[in-house]
Amino acid sequence: MLKIFKFAVKNVTANKKRTLLTIAVIVIGLCSINIGKGIMSGMQKESELGVTEGRTGEIQIHKQGYFDASELTMLDYSINNASRLQDELKKIEGIEHVAGRIQFGGLLAKGDEIAVVVFCKAVDIANEVKVCSRIKDNIIEGRFLTVDDANGAIIASGLQKGVGANLGDFIIIVANTKDGYQNAIELEVVGIIKEKAAQANTRLVYLPMEKAQELLYMGDEVTEIVMKISENSDIDALNQRLNHLLKSRGFESNTWMDVSAFFVGVMEKQNAVVFALCLIFYCIVISSITNTMVLTLFERKKEIGTMMAIGIKARDVIRLIIMESTIIGFIGSLIGVLLSAAVIEIFNRVGMSYQLPSATALVTIHPLINLPFMLLSFLLGVLSAILGSIYPARKVLQVNPIDALRQ
Questions:
Q1: What is the pTM of this model?
Q2: C-beta separation of 168 from 188 below 8 A
Q3: How would DSSP label each residue in 349-364?
Q4: What pLDDT digit, counting tens, does each position of 160-200 carry?
Q5: Is 258 inside a domain boundary?
Q6: Are residues 107 and 245 in the same domain?
Q7: Residue 362, by phi and psi: left (phi above 0), alpha (psi -120 to 50) or beta?
Q8: Cβ-proximal residues to 260 (8 Å cutoff; 6+ apart), any chain
Q9: Domain count, the chain
């Protein structure tokens, strides 16, 4: 086997142009796949953090049937004695922070102007930023709510333009209470936030949870409880445990993936694209190796015929051809993986900005090196080279030594 390896190395270095061309195909293919996967991994990670740290938290608890409710009936599925439940949740291993919220639909009016339909999100100011640390990042004017802003409000930038409300202005929020009565409160605009989703950017209003409970006559009630879990916790196992504990009390627990089906669907489509590109790459590599080996075979008929004429067995010649392809595949795959890792690392440090069609702001992502995927692509790159040499190797069996020597 060592002799075959040495002879294969000699043949690979002798045919430099075709060797370099085949290696280049493998390198380009592997770089395309790995860099594309790195960028998509960065996009998916940024999307996940944007959702969990900016909107949903990692796990949410609601009353059963909450997700079937409309904006007008959300309050019918409120959680009673929310403070006591939150205290219980804080004691569970794996849960770092807990915050309550109230979400409801209403109307916003400024002065005597016509009211517009809004979606209100009342937050526990002291704990909201602990669960969703990125919620403050999109503030473009003013500040996020503080414990001193008992009558404060934050409105989305699109909504602010629509109603003409600026910092320091007072707005009126009108909503139906849990019992169906209409009530209103006056709030001062202390911040303008730019939501990434265009629809939310024209409707969303943040206000203190205590003020919402006063507006809606809810007492110690919330519509949802959101949580941040510890870094090493298994989110699925913890979610399953919470469901086991809370199901009998009429509550249900859901991970951020359950309540953000759109983002999960986007990630699945991205993974499908990567899979399709991988298939295309492997087809290109296999066809390139096969083509190169077939051409090499015709050029080396005399050489192969001589080897078989002096007693070298056909299986040894086949091994030689497969060994040559393996060497080319190994070199090309190794260069492709190392080069793509270097490019991904550069992009990770520099960052890449893009904007989704339905978004209102740029998103900066940092591509990630996916070691398991790179190892798999390396192995499949080598395997593709080996598979691409099988057909030419079988053609060797059809070579007649006498005819080969005549050529």
A1: 0.75
A2: yes
A3: HH-EEE--TTBSS-EE
A4: 988 888 999 999 999 998 888 899 999 999 999 988 777 78
A5: no
A6: yes
A7: beta
A8: 51, 55, 56
A9: 2
- In 132-259, where do the E strands start and end? 139-142, 152-156, 170-176, 182-193, 204-208, 224-229, 251-255
Following DSSP, what letter does each residue of 32-91 receive, concatenated?
A: HHHHHHHHHHHHHHHHHHHHIIIII-SEEEEETTGGG--TTTGGGGPBSSHHHHHHHHHT
Give ∠ CA 29-362-275 in degrees, rounded to 5: 25
Shared domain check, 280 and 144? no
Closest to 88 in 3D by CA, of 229, 209, 242:
242
Single out the residue in 249, 273, 290 at which a domain terminates: 249
pLDDT level of residue 346 (50, 70, 90 thresholds): very high
Contact residues for 83 (Cβ-Cβ < 8 A; gap 6+): 100, 220
Asked if residue 57 is part of any domain, the answer here is no
Overall size of the chain counted in residues: 407
Residues 241 and 360 both lie in one domain: no
Residues 41 and 91 in one domain: no
Q: Which two three-digit tokens encode residue 343?
A: 């490019």
Helices (H) and strands (E) in the chain, counts: 14, 12
For the chain, the first-to-last Cα distance in angstroms comes to 29
Residues ≥6 apart with Cβ < 8 Å to 224: 60, 61, 62, 66, 79, 100, 101, 103
Token code pair at residue 220: 């110690």
The letter for the amino acid at 308 is M
Q: Are 212 and 77 part of one and the same domain?
A: yes
**Has residue 255 been placed in a domain?**
no
Point out the domain boundary residue: 216, 249, 282. Answer: 249
In a domain, 256, yes or no: no
pLDDT at 124: 93
- Do 166 and 76 lie in a common domain? yes
How far is the C-alpha of 333 from the C-alpha of 379, rounded, in Å?
8
Residue 60, strand partner residues = 226, 254
Residues spanned by the domain of 222 = 65-249
